[in-house]
Structure to design on (109 residues):
């Protein structure tokens, strides 16, 4: 029984690690989008393009919002990765996380 629990715990740890790695990559991607939107806004501001400036600011705010959401998901997955280590039920908690392999990942475009 304990060997099966240990194997499930390994699968659970890998599942949470995989989700946290994906969240980290999304944070990096959203950061690049926010940087590009910020640069586009500053270029439009220097040129005096008021219509384009408004559109660029909307994109910048959207990119910042997406980056904050991605960062929140990263913090959540990292907390799930670290929290069981601080409890006496480390192996059973990681074994419970093995269920993540059956759940679809949250995909946003």
């Amino acid at each position: 029984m304990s060997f099966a629990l240990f194997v499930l715990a390994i699968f659970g740890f890998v599942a949470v690690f995989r989700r946290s790695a994906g969240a980290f990559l999304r944070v990096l991607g959203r950061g690049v989008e926010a940087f590009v939107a910020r640069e586009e806004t500053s270029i439009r501001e220097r040129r005096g393009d008021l219509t384009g400036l408004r559109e660029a600011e909307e994109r910048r705010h959207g990119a910042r919002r997406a980056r904050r959401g991605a960062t929140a998901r990263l913090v959540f997955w990292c907390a799930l990765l670290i929290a069981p280590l601080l409890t006496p039920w480390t192996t059973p908690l990681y074994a419970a996380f093995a269920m993540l392999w059956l759940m679809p990942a949250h995909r946003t475009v």
